[in-house]
């Protein structure tokens, strides 16, 4: 590879880093990736797996945030049922069960909680949650997912047979954040773009 | 103010380093331009290694899922340490290339220093 080409690639990389870390460019891209559909009450709130469970058995920060979002939406009366999804890995219990424990301790009745703990990808989550909710005749769901991943998740769940609305705060444009937060968001956005390409190629949505 | 604090801090120390380099250490201004070029080359090599690591890592994850019952999450690649390791690879390869010029004779334009 020639020196000139390497310098051009390096220049673009440095410029991209500066733009991503010190301007709200990544925040805008993340906002642009989120669906524009309005949120409204649904038959069930579905909290997608995110972050899993740490070795100590406690939920990771990301997973805890998703769980709390689901609990708050339930307590606001936006749906009579909340579905916690999560990775099966975890000790002594998986992510979905750990989230359900927190919801019960926050006052959500056990009868209003469903867990799905065998899915490892968004596509598997859609299939398994559809199988779980089919017997309850639930078709309209409110999805709780991270902002960059919301669009892909909505398409996958719609493909599984649901009418999907996003959680209300998925549409907020946030210009703030420290450089490290923005770089973290950049990694999230990059991974999501790769996932979108993969899901399209694989025919998942 | 908080948003521009780090860039201002780095600009300040960069100006100080420039003044020390020129006035105390006697470094040339032309040398600085060449150093910027070399730094961009190393950044470019870092990008090449990062893309290669991500592409091969993704292929290995997907192949592992397809060929065995073991599930490996793609998010294993979403780690800042991969960027740091790619940077180390890029710097090491760049210096290796620079310190063994015979291997490149006839294949690349002459270096400018």
Folded structure, characterized:
- The complex is a heterodimer of chains A (205) and B (113).
- Chain A has helices at 3-22, 25-33, 61-75, 95-105, 122-134, 147-159, 179-202, and strands at 44-47, 82-85, 113-116, 140-144, 163-166.
- With 205 residues, chain A is an alpha/beta fold.
- Chain A has a domain at 34-173: Rossmann fold, CATH 3.40.50.
- A 5-stranded parallel beta sheet of chain A has the order 3-2-1-4-5, with helices on both faces.
- In chain A, strand 2 (82-85), helix 4 (95-105) and strand 3 (113-116) form a beta-alpha-beta unit.
- The longest helix of chain A is centred in the last third of the chain and has 24 residues, at 179-202.
- Chain A is elongated and about 65 Å long.
- In chain A, 40% of the residues are buried.
- Chain B has 113 residues and is mainly alpha-helical.
- Chain B has one domain.
- Helices cover 73% and strands 0% of the residues of chain B.
- Chain B has 3 helices and no strands.
- Chain B has helices spanning 2-24, 29-67, 80-99.
- In chain B, helix 2 packs across helix 3.
- The model of chain B has no long low-confidence stretch (mean pLDDT 88).
- The A-B interface holds A 1-3, 5-11, 13-14, 22, 120, 178-179, 183, 187-188, 191, 194-195, 198 and B 2-4, 6-7, 37, 39-48, 54, 58, 71, 73-75, 77-78, 80, 108-109, 111.
């Amino acid at each position: 590879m020639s020196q000139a080409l390497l310098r051009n690639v390096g220049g673009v990389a440095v410029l991209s880093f500066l733009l991503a870390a010190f301007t709200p460019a990544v925040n805008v891209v993340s906002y642009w990736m989120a669906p524009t559909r309005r949120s409204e009450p649904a038959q069930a709130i579905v909290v997608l797996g995110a972050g899993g469970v740490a070795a100590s058995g406690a939920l990771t920060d990301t997973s805890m945030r998703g769980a709390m979002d689901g609990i708050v939406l339930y307590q606001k009366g936006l749906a009579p049922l909340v579905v916690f999804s999560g990775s099966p890995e975890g000790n002594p219990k998986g992510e979905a069960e750990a989230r359900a424990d927190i919801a019960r301790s926050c006052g959500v009745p056990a009868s209003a909680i469903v867990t799905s703990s065998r899915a490892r990808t968004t596509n598997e989550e859609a299939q398994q949650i559809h199988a779980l909710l089919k017997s309850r005749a639930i078709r309209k769901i409110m999805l709780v997912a991270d902002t960059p991943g919301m669009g892909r998740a909505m398409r996958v769940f719609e493909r599984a047979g649901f009418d999907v609305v996003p959680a209300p705060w998925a549409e907020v444009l946030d210009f703030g954040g420290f450089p490290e937060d923005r770089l973290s968001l950049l990694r999230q956005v990059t991974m999501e773009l790769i996932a979108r390409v993969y899901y399209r190629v694989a025919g998942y949505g | 103010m908080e948003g521009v604090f780090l860039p201002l801090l780095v600009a300040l120390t960069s100006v100080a380093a420039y003044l020390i380099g020129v006035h105390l250490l006697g470094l040339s201004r032309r040398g600085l331009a060449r150093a910027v070029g070399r730094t961009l080359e190393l950044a470019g090599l870092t990008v090449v290694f990062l893309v290669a690591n991500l592409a091969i890592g993704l292929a290995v994850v997907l192949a592992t899922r397809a060929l065995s019952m073991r599930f490996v999450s793609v998010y294993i690649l979403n780690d800042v340490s991969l960027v740091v390791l790619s940077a180390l690879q890029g710097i090491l390869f760049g210096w290796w290339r620079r310190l063994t010029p015979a291997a490149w004779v006839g294949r690349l334009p002459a270096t400018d220093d």
